[in-house]
Amino acid sequence: MNRRTFLQHSGKIGAAALAAAAFPKLGKAQSRPTIKVVGTHVTLLEPIRQKAEQDLGINIEFHPGGDAEVLLKASTDPTAFDLYEQWSNSIKVLWQAKTIQPINTRRLTYWEEINSLSKTGRISDKAKHGLGDAPDKILFVQSDGRLDGSETEEISFLPYVHNVDSFGYNSSVVPKGIPYETESWGWLLDERWAGKVAIVNSPEIGIFDLALAVRAKGLMQFKDMGNMSREEVDQLFDIIIALKRKGHFRGMWTSVPHSVELMATSEVVIQSMFSPGVSALNGMGIPCIYAAPKEGYRAWHGVMCLSRACVDERQEAAYAFMNWWLSGWPGAFIARQGYYISNPQRSKPFMSQAEWDYWYEGKPAAEPLMGTDGKISVQLGEVRTGGSYLRRFENIAVWNTVMDTYEYTLTKWNEFVLA
Amino acid sequence: MAVTDFLLRTVGLKKRIALGYIVTGLVAFMIALLSYGAFTRLAEDFRQIVHFSRHSADNMAFARQMTEMQRQALIYIYEGHSSAGTQVGTIYKQMMDSILSSQDLDRIGAGAVVELARRHLEAYYEAFREVQRQRQLQDRLVRSEFRVHATRAQQLIEELTRQEAAQPETPGLRPPLPENSFLSFIPAAAPAGQGGARPASEQGYTEAERMLNGAKMLASLLQIEKNAYRYFDSYESSFIQAATASLEDTRERLQTFDGQDKAAELKEVLERYEITFLEAVQRTRGYLYLINVVMSAQAYETIYQSNKLSAMMLHETGRIQQEVFAHISSRQQLLLFSTALLLLFIALFSYLISRSITLPLRRLTETFKLLSSGSADAEIPPYLLQDELGDLTGSAASFKGKNIELLASKKELERSNDELEQFVYTVSHDLKSPIVTSMGFIGIIRKLAAQGKAEQAMGMLEKVVKANERMSQLINDLLELSRVGRIDMDKKLVDLNALLADFARSQAERLKAATFTLIIQPNLPSLFANESRILQVFENILSNALKYVRNETEGCRLEINSYDDAQLHHILCADNGPGIAAEYRDKVFGLFYRLNVNIEGTGIGLAVAKKIMKFHSGDISAEARPGGGAVFHLTFPRAEAGQS
Fold first, then answer.
1. What percent of chain A has pLDDT over 90?
2. Which site among A67, A75, A76, A201 would you substitute to test the B interface, given the most B Cβ atoms closer than 10 Å to its Cβ?
3. How many domains does one find in chain B?
4. pTM
5. Which residues of B158-178 are buried (b: 16+ CB within 10 A; e: fewer)?
6. Of B260, B292, B324, which residue sits at a domain end?
7. Would an 8 Å CB–CB cutoff place A90 in contact with chain B?
8. Is A417 part of the contact surface with chain B (CB cutoff 8 Å)?
9. Of A325, B123, B451, B637, which is the most buried if we count CB atoms within 10 A?
């Protein structure tokens, strides 16, 4: 056992010990509680469920579904779930719906390890504070029930998985750009790719891709892109609807496989993308580049929320599950899918140096790296686009957000989609 | 022409005519077959075009239906018309039927597109079903539960107020009222903590304050309902905040009534009221999201795939149209070319058939024309087959045979006539000479007799006698000539060696007297001939030799020899006399022709020999003998000799 593996092994043992210490009440529980977790396929993965059950000695039911489906379920029926895993843009809805309850940070074993991105909205001092609902803005529960950035002991969600999104382009058609220098959201509106552009079909996400593109092309400016006024929404949709009527957009993609299919069939050469879609296309031999736009990324933050109806033993189990998520192994697991965890140092011992260097440090892969499916997902020498975790999150343009004009944007979105 | 010759050699007339009809029929059948093939293909192409046109029409209707379905769905959502929701289901069923009927488009590679359209349409309708469910839930919450809670809350507030009015006022415990309490009887829905009810810690309210808070709670209740319905009408989220703020305000003011039973119940009702409202809000947002985002995207994808299908069908229809035009053009060309070729073939074949009929007929016609004009030289066209034309050719050959015979007869007749004329002339001339001589001497004798010179007259009389004797000899020879071929002409095999040996013996005295040598070479042939006539020929040749040959050096001589070739026996009678000049060699066979009139003779002997040789299908000619002398060359056909 060399030094590196020794440290890694020791780290794992330490983490496991900490994890065990984090769930004292469960050890005393007579029965084996069952918690229902509602969320998306991004984090509700069977290996995670099995590992959590094994580590925690509880029963865990995963109920994955589509974004809108699970949000509707969680926002209308707190008894439908104990824990809800989705994106930070769902927090306003859930908090307003009062179907979730505050989480007490004193019961979170690794609360202090959670980095500044989630607590202040900035990963470093020189980082941009992205527009829209940065996690800090909706994290802390104030005494009057509002959510704000002023630190309190109660939070609306457990910060855990997060990442940045941008657009992907087929470099066999679209000339390869320079990350952070020439790659721009404006490319989405480049006339050269007319008819071969797609946008994610999600108003609280896609609208920002379009807004960033419109702004990058100098077609309009926003007072606050993260919370557009009705007039700004009208102006934005006037521009993009006119473009759509000219045939600029191939359409909307409704799922990651759909986005993969669109580019794989050459119907699209540039589009909004999620990280797994890019990986899938690269696996198919299609040179899809995940851009690092000079205007900054559109970021998202995963949230784990506690149901208002989750009490007693199930609440204990839910807290245990939340603590388990930050205990190291899950963070390492989802790192292999390209996602980051809010306390990365805790996951480091569960990753090889090559994995850590590639996923977090932005260095070339020192060896072929496995994905969560056990297949090689990163080839030797490959470098993650956008660079390190730090660099990526220092360049956030906007966070996925449910704006005050949410309902209005829905009707405009309908107009845009069917234009 | 080779084909015509082949037909003439191998195919009979009737078969040729039948073959012509059969081939023409076959060609007509082939043209019909080609036309049938061309029209069948065209019909199939046309069916394809009709098929795609129908699908295109369906597809256009499909896009229209999709748009209409989304319109009806929006009417259902925003106006709440249930008939619009029913209409969405009806249109969906029609569209699914249309998709199912498009499954056969897989063969143009549109299967995946149809499948995608089906999947998106199903997803659309599934989302709409969820929208209906959410809309119904929201409707139930808003129209039923929401009102129930609002009404119950109002009742409870009114009851609390009435109870308060019935209780006596307790002075001295009156805390100060909020600053804006009297500014408005019905306060706006202000957020909690912004000048609403007094904090819960401040207890000991006066009756007036409770009455005022009760009134304000009623006003807030009204604001909650008002803002809620404003939200459900406008979907403006600020009304949610206003409604929840009013709810919070109501709760805080309710603290004025803490400790009362109705207050606790009102608190629960307000809780349920808020939950109902917030659930209705979320369900509203849910179906708004579904219809504006999920359904619209599925509708767009369905329409996109439908348009893609239309484009594919348009492309396929265009391709088929091009194919059809290409097929029409190629079939036209093929049909035209084939028909022209086949007609050319028919023309050529008809020409060959007619030529195979007319050519021998024309040849035969020409032949018959010649034959009818008496030609014996007319060529009989070769025709080997035993058919009608073969019979006709046989008839022509017979006709020609008759003509040849007739011509031969005619020539013979002419020759006979010529001979007769010559004969009459010669006879009359040669017979006239002794008569003239006799008449001259008779005249002299008459004069001498008149003068009384009887003796001299008698002397003249002898000359008259001689002239008459000569005339008698001429008449005998002519008689002999006329007998040749008519009298005593039976033939038999004659051994020339024996015959001429006898002849030599019979002429021995005569030859001796004339010191003339007759040499007969051995191995002479045997001939099928009339013995006496043949002997007559040799007698005449020998007589001429005796008269004309005078050769003091070698002695007079006649040598008879022979040789044979494939067809003829050649007999050569060569003398060593003065020979016959070339210009006289034919003339010597003429009647009464004599080379030397001073030599006794009638000039009939060689003419007789010529006639005898003709009678034997042979000939006689005079030739020069090498070294001087004449050779009489006799030829006899060998076949005739072989007849024995």
1. 78
2. A76
3. 3
4. 0.66
5. ebbbebbeeeeeeeeeeeeee
6. B292
7. no
8. yes
9. A325
* Residues, chain B: 644
Same structural domain, B528 and B459: no
- Tell me whether residues B293 and A72 touch, CB distance under 8 A: no
The tokens of B457 are what? 């007259």
Are B524 and B610 in a shared domain? yes
Indicate whether B217 and B201 sit together in one domain: yes
In a shared domain, residues B499 and B628: yes
CATH number of the CATH domain containing B599: 3.30.565.10
Domain limits for position B181: 157-292
Which residue, of B483, B513, B535, is where some domain finishes? B483
**pLDDT, tens digit, 9 for 90 and up, residues B108-118:** 777 888 888 88
Query: In this structure, what token pair is assigned to residue A121?
Result: 């909205």
Task: Check A417 against B193: CB less than 8 A apart.
Answer: no
3-state SS string over chain A?
Answer: CCHHHHHHHHHHHHHHHHHHHHCHHHHHCCCCCEEEEEECCCCCCHHHHHHHHHHHCCEEEEEECCHHHHHHHHHHCHHHCCEEEEEHHHHHHHHHHCCEECEEHHHCCCHHHCCHHHHHCCCCCCCCCCECCCHHHHCEECCCCCEECCCCCEECCEEEEEEEEEEEEECCCCCCCCCCCCCCHHHHHCHHHCCCEEEECCHHHHHHHHHHHHHHCCCCCCCCHHHCCHHHHHHHHHHHHHHHHCCCEEEEECCHHHHHHHHHCCCCCEEEECHHHHHHHHHCCCCEEECCCCCCEEEEEEEEEEECCCCHHHHHHHHHHHHHHCCCHHHHHHHCCCCECCCHHHHHHHCCHHHHHHHCCCCCCCCCEECCCCCEEECCCCCCCCCCHHHHHHCEEEECCCCCCHHHHHHHHHHHHHC
- Which residues on chain A are in Cβ contact (under 8 Å) with B298? 254
ipTM associated with this complex: 0.86
Residue from B535, B563, B528 nearest B641 by CA: B528
pLDDT (average), residues B235-259 = 87
The pair of three-digit structure tokens given for residue B393, joined into one six-digit string: 């050719």
Q: At what angle do helices B296-372 and B111-140 cross, to 10 degrees?
A: 150
Q: Same structural domain for residues B494 and B636? A: yes
Judge whether B178 lies within some domain: yes
Nearest to A144 among B74, B192, B285 (CB): B192
CATH of A164-297+394-418, one of 3.40.50.1220, 3.40.190.10, 1.10.357.20, 3.30.70.100: 3.40.190.10
B226 plus B261 within the same structural domain: yes
Distance from CA of B70 to the nearest CA of A (A): 10
Contact, A140 vs A153, CB < 8 A?
no
pLDDT tens digits for range A57-94:
999 999 998 888 899 899 999 999 999 999 898 898 99
Of B192, B289, B300, the CB nearest to A252: B300
* CATH 3.40.50.300 for domain A3-163+298-350: no
pLDDT tens-digit readout, B587-597: 898 877 888 88
**CB atoms A96 and B281 under 8 Å:** yes
The SS3 assignment for B493 reads strand
- Burial grade of B325 (CB within 10 A; 0-12, 13-18, 19 or more): exposed
Dihedral pair phi/psi, residue B51, rounded to 5°: -60, -50
Calculate mean pLDDT across residues B328-346: 83
Question: What residue segments make up the domains of chain A, in order of their start?
Answer: 3-163+298-350, 164-297+394-418, 353-384
> Coil, strand, or helix at residue B88?
helix
Residues of B with CB under 8 A from a CB of A: 67, 70, 74, 134, 192-193, 235-238, 240, 244, 274-275, 278-279, 281-283, 285-286, 288-294, 296-301, 304
- Asked whether residue B560 is assigned to any structural domain, the reply reads yes
